[in-house]
Amino acid sequence: MATFLYKLGRLAFRRRHFVALLWVALLTLAGVGAASAPAAGNTSFSIPGTEAQKAFDLLEQRFPGMSADGATARVVFKAHDGGKMTDAGTKATVEKTVKELGSGSEVASVADPYRGHAVSRNGTVAYASVKYKVSGMELQDSSLDALKAAAQHARDAGLTVEVGGDALNATPETGSSEVIGIAIAAVVLVITFGSLLAAGLPLLTALIGVGIGVSSITALASTLDLGSTTSTLATMIGLAVGIDYALFIVSRYRAELAEGREREEAAGRAVGTAGSAVVFAGLTVVIALVGLSVVDIPMLTKMGVAAAGTVAIAVLIALTLIPALLGYAGRKVKPTGEKSRLLGGGRAPKNPGRPNMGTRWARFVVRRPVAVLLLGVVGLGAAALPATSLELGLPDDGSQPTSTTQRRAYDLLSEGFGPGFNGPLMVVVDAKGSADPKAAFTEVGDEIKGLKDVVTVTPAAPNKTGDTATITVVPDSKPSSATTEELVHAIRDKGTDIARDTDSTVLVTGSTAMNIDVSQKLNDALLPYLALVVGLAFLLLIVVFRSVLVPLKAALGFLLSVLAALGAVVAVFQWGWLSGLMNVEQTGPVMSMMPIFMVGVVFGLAMDYEVFLVTRMREAYVHGESPGQAVVTGFRHGARVVTAAAVIMIAVFSGFIGSSEAMVKMIGFGLAIAVFFDAFVVRMAIVPAVLALLGRRAWWLPKWLDRALPNVDVEGEGLRGAADPDAEKELVRA
């Protein structure tokens, strides 16, 4: 591995014009594809195998004109102070608005509040339900504009009008905070390298990689049904790893220059050593992201695969474009320890010969491993405590900021009709095999009326053939509450008994039931996913480090990091700690996919630092240093760069905390705090403490396993000899 990458680095350095032209061509091709591709909304949402999805599929068959998965909007009206919705002027305004709402080409139906009994008991609140022929992710902008215009016309007439429902699902906006994250990354790179040019290389290559990845996603969005959240995740992960991978190779290149090597040779050795770590670190991230397909939620699978593709591009760019650009930079990229004149280069160091901060810290940890280990584990354990009260759910309009019309519509409906009205359940009764379908429909309705937490049960609405009916159930509690979840399970339990008596099938669906099913499916998939991802990465790390205990320690450290990060997410988004600082206006259950998503992404990123830091220790140990000294050497060469990489990744992820989308905000915070815990507590404190305690046992590997494993030579042992003058020819022939 190291020898091949060494030759690849030298080839890219020599043939830099060709390599640069190739990447520019790929970026141009992806950009043209994105510009010419048809527009696509967010990815469609389906959960194969769940009861809620089965009910949706059944409705599509038995109610062909119903548009079961079509978008819905609720236009909520509130009368003037002291007025009623039944006042003549108010009623005329509402009826005019209803007529205007039904004029769109994508509108399937509009329910008049006066005919559909959609006026509150006190007469102050009413709503009109708009049903569309297509999903909210497929709605055209013209339909949304017409919806907003109709609501505004009613406001102009003097009514309070708000709009809720999934028809208003908007593309998340990250705002200026994302740019601030990149700016912080730039400052950290300048401080790390002491050179504007060297600092600019990782930023430039990361932006090229993200540009290719996101443009490709945009180009394929319509064909593969990819959405805005997919590209947001790819941007988030691609920027972070793209900067980090380039940072490690440029840093190693400068270290090789400091040892007196020629620039082409330094580029080859940087790619052969740090590049090997980049390849295996990238593989762990790709494994974690692609492994999300195990959950069998198409949206999550697409997000994972798209982000994995962006990571793969980042790896390829780091291995080829970075050495090519180093060739262009020439002597402007200084050896380690030297700064450009603009940033103070040429001045005598204040304390020549003094060990750097990484060396001093590593020596302290090696002297006090037990104290450092206990402090790190106890600290992360304390941070993880809030995770014991973790509540999962999917966000609805009730979790939106109070400044949005969706949230205000949600609150008006709760005020007029009760909290459960925002999450009605749809019960689908399939009586095709029943001798008396009407009796089955009636029995189902009567049984549901007898359950707790039920406010309203509408009469059964059969289809044209009379073999299938829908019943709407309004709970007494809000959609995200545990009480509503218990009601869904109670209806399903009753449906099992009814099925035996009437030869019919009872299914519960609707957005609330779908959210409950998604949460359950994600919970069920968490352990198998964790076993798959950690297991595969564990085997990969055994090959990299040729050790059993080092990969085991890496996996256990990751579990500490992710549990502590989940605890922090619960404290902020569920308990409300620091919610004002994070601009979290509404606390509530943590997003259902957050645990499994954090397990996947954080594991891949955590292994980045494990590979980069411990590979340098392994390299020193293989070259004859004692275990304790190898830890110090690894920190002397790698601590500064790993610290910079972690700060950059935290800055990039933190930039997404400013997003208007609750899901993106939570992911950005969760990943940022997880990287902080993993890089600075686990990898910088717990890892060296454990390695110091284990000594030579840390690098133990059974002889039979040593013989069976391939030798990938990540530490660059094969590069200790003289440079190969025919490197380019051999690579071309290979």
Mean pLDDT across residues: 83
Percentage of residues assigned to helices: 55-70%
Total helices: the number is 22
* Percent strand: 5-15%
Largest sheet: 5 strands, antiparallel
Instruction: Give the end-to-end Cα distance, rounded to a whole number of Å.
Output: 13 Å
Point out poorly predicted stretches: 722-734
> Judging from the principal axes of the Cα atoms, what is the shape?
elongated
Number of strands: 11
- Gyration radius (Cα, Å) is 30 Å
- The SS-based structural class is alpha+beta
Provide structural commentary.
The chain contains 22 helices and 11 strands. It has 734 residues and is α+β, with helices and mostly antiparallel strands. β8 (461-462) and β9 form a beta hairpin. α1 packs across α22. Mean pLDDT is 83; it is low at 722-734.
